[in-house]
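Handout, section 3.2

Students often ask what a structure token actually looks like in practice. Rather than define it abstractly, here is a full record for NADH:ubiquinone oxidoreductase. The first block is the sequence as you would receive it.
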Amino acid sequence: MDTTSEQGLPPDEAERIAAICEGVGDDPHRMLDILRAVQDELRWISPAAMGLIASRTGLSRIAVEGVASFYAFLSQAPKGRVTIRLCDDIVDRFAGMPEVAAAFEAALGIKVGETSADGAVSLEYTPCIGLCDQAPAAMINDVVLTGLTPGRAGDIAAALKAGQSPEELIAQDFLDLTPHERATRQVENNIRHAGASLLSPVPDGAGLAKALDMDPVRIIAEIEASGLRGCGGAGFGTGRKWRFAAETEAERRIIICNADEGEPGTFKDRVLLTERPHLLAEGMTIAARAVGASEGILYLRGEYVYLRDLIEEVLQDRRDRGLLGQGIGGQDFDFDIRLQLGAGAYICGEEGALISSCEGLPGEPKTRPPFPVTQGYLGLPTVVNNVETFCHAARILDQGAQWFSDMGHAGSHGTKLFSVSGDCLRPGVYELSYGLSVRELLAMAGGEDAAAVAVGGASGTMIARDQFDRCLSFDDLATGGSVVVFNGSRNILEIVEYYMSFFVHESCGFCTPCRVGNVFLHKAIGKFRKGLANPEDIEYLKDLSGTIIETSRCGLGTTSPKPILTTLENFPLVYAATVKPSKDRIRASFDIQSAIDDARHMAKRGSEIFDEDYSE
């Protein structure tokens, strides 16, 4: 029987899908690549397409649908030929995104969440896209636009309706530009302070050249002696991680770079990917030399798709120069890197979920133990580090462990890249030695009037003015890079409510404490915002948060209550002010107006009893 006919696809679509599958060898582990390509080609992933993909890769259609339904950038309903994704991060909201969204709606004649009747344009919200230093921002297909205003939104919509491509919104000669020029035309680097390790000029290949003259044991010893710790937030010793992988018996080992920096307010890896991609590849190659790996994967978050051509160009250049591929440096050392693009899933920043995604599965965290260093990608020993960590490793091999160790603070060696955004005059990336205070960083960024600072993003710590002298280090205020500044005009509970809605949206849904518990926390914060909370609700927040932390499967659940817990601790009056008893010492816990909103909508009229201005 003709498979194409059985699947019910038009012949041209079936041929395009078959070619996409064939391009990755019909490999089910490349499912995310297949589905992304089908989405780009056909603007959706239809049931018939999933059936054909399943037959090509030897999977069930349900397995394919499980992946297709997991990622936000994949759709099982037709999208417009142009999809506009408006960043809905709290920083973008405060910078004017609601007005920008309204301007797009008016100009396009559709609401957020809709597609135009002619199938030309879809308009939707998406969480943080790593551009908080130049908010409001949006993705239009694979193009990024920053610093949006309502007026500019109208101009963009008019240009798209007139047939202009998203690329032409950046430059008429967009395709004639180099990949690096395309990237920097779209996004400002905003490097505010270049430190000694990563953002000052670095020699090309110096670290790898020295690593090729060292045996693997010595490379690992050098990394351990430097005190380098993982820069993504957890802070696990990098050399120790490499040593565990190297000592695990296996015929194959894998190096994975986690470039899925989805934590709201974090964008420093974006800058490294733009300005130091060679240093990143060099660091991954050094890690491969140290642990005996021949395969590498660079997992790039889907929101950074505009950097894809730049990274592919860098990888090819390194192959051409003998720095990737077979016989690196003229030695018996083979190692290559493939680029794996994500598709809009915050949870894939967690290393187990990231590995699942690389395997062509839904991005769900893996049960531990075993840990990735002994049994990770496809069951093989796997080293997962982020962009900043690999870049530091290359510099350490060049300059030496002592050079790196001498910088920073006790237990927090070297430099750290801070992504500073929000209510400050100079948002951007600051490379500074560990050990400075929040107050010192605020002075550099022009955020002296801050009333609150979120250190570490949504899953970090929210501090008040009386804690601005605390130290930015692993042993005090640890951060993967995000520092979001809020001035006194901002509503702390609005910020907390946003962060909780973010976690509700981004939970993978695997475990009940995270899937359900965060919904309850979000609803409870809504009660505080509406003035409907009772004093007992504060204890409820604490108890439920503790349960979620203790029983969740992965890092998302163990950190998601932190916006609530840290603001309860550091801003107690904000909560206390909303639970003062009423004059008769009775506090309403039920909002009748909210309860009948759905009924009003369905009946298309108000309530004779509860609406004063009711008329039949």
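Discussion prompt for tutorial groups: The chain has a mean pLDDT of 93. How would you have guessed this from the sequence alone?
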